[in-house]
Structure formats: structure tokens, C-alpha cells
Amino acid sequence: MQGDPPAVARQRVRRALRKAREATSLSQGDIAKKLEWSLSKMQRIEAGEVGVSPTDLRALLDFYGVTDAGEVDRLIADARVSRQQRWLTPPEHRAYLTPALRQLLQFEAEATTIRAYQSVIIPGVMQTSAAAETVLNWSENGISNDERRVRFDVRMQRRRRIVGDEQGPTYLVILDESVIKRQIGGPVIMAEQLEALVDIAQLQNVSIRVLPFEKGALMGLPVPFHVLTLSDDPDDIVAYRESYERDSFVHDPVEARQVRNVFDQLWAECLPEPATIRKIADEAEILRTSTVS
Question: Which one, 3, 58, 191, 203, has least CB within 10 Å?
Fold first, then answer.
């Protein structure tokens, strides 16, 4: 039995430590000073940027007065898991995927709900194989064939796990209208991609909405992002942001909820699902017609 991914275990430890500290009304700086640690160490632990060692975890729990043996044992077990950076991660994934993307794969495996906003291209988990190959070939960074192969394989794996299985997490997606109008690989490949989107939208666990042009540049149209909910606990939430140059994770629940609020505001401005599906289907038909001469 594989057990939980390290990123998920680390999130549980981080949340538990933050709640325990807040119950004392002490700041991160106060705790760091009393334990003779650096403030940056406390910040990294609570931000989920590093795994906490069992020894440091015991020191924190003792200081916070957390004495329940069962809870202590569970957190110690999570701390050990959180430091297993090679959690069934193939060496080539470590070589060719960013640390944030590797975390995203782990959180996706445990998420109950994933909310995604895309302003540029079809989300990777919804791309057809032809569209994915086209997107990966766009890179101007001269990525190697091995890197391109790994990224393609991971993209297809994520597609099968999230939108290829109706038992997967609830997946709510906002597409800016430009996404369905910007051609990937020419009219034939793009028509196939849009038709695939229509099929995906029929899945029980998937809802897709288009944010139409007439709504304007709402909130400046943020960079593409994901918000992943891991349980019923409102603090059990993380966000993933991506741009052309970099990607990053947001572990702080307050900041992650702010990203979730942006999603909710955009979602309310979108076309409802039936109108979205019709719009995507119409775009596919236009492309199909353009190829007939």
C-alpha cells in the first residue's frame, strides 16, 4: 500500500502546527525565539516549503501542549512521510518536471475538488494527444526530446486520472473565451480538441464554463491557476499558479482561499454549462466547415 503522497502529509502537519500555534496566541517569531530557531525555519515549516523532522515536530508539539498520544503518533508518521521526496517519482520526472508540478501531481491524487482557470490554452488535463504534442512543440526554450516525452506522458496520465474517470475528483473549469478561439495545431486538430471538450463536459464529475469576451477584463484576468480542496476542512486547501516563466504553490490557507474567491467571482460571470457546451460545439463546427472546400 503506497499511502499518502509526501506533499499531502506535509500539508496535514503544516495545518496542525499552525492551528496549535495560533491557539497559544504566539507569533512565529515568539516560537522561534523560545526554541532558539531562526524565524525563517518557522516560516518554512508553516508554509509547507520544507518537511519538519520528527525531532523538531516533537519539540513543537511539546511546546504547544499537544499530548494526545494518538494525535502525536499520527503527526510523527505524517512528518516521516512528508520527507520521502522520492515517493514513487521516476528519476526522469525529477529531472524534467518542476518541483511545483511534482507537488501538483501529488495533490491531484488526493483532491476531492479541483477548480481551474485558464486564460491562454486548453488545460493540459483536457488536451487531446495531438493538441498536447503541438503545445509542447511550441516551446522556444529548446527542450530536449526526453523532456518533451516526459511532459507529454505526464499530461496524458493526468488526463486519464482526472477527466478520464468519472470517479475522479470534481473538476470545475473556467475557460476564457479566447481559449476556445485560439487555434492549436490548425483547424483540424483544434476542431478535434473542441469536440473532445464537449465530450468531457458530459462527464458527471466535470463542469466547464466559458468566460465570454463581453464580460471584459474582470479583475485583470489573473494568471492560470488551480485550487485544490483536499477535505471538508476549509483550511485543507492549496493553490497552484502557473505562468510562462514559472509555477508555484500557495500553501497558506488564507491566501489559497483568496484565490478560491477569485475563481468563484469569475465562475459567476461565466456562461452556464449548457450555453458553454453549445458555444464550444459551434466553434468546432465553424472549424470543420472551414476545412471543407
Answer: 3
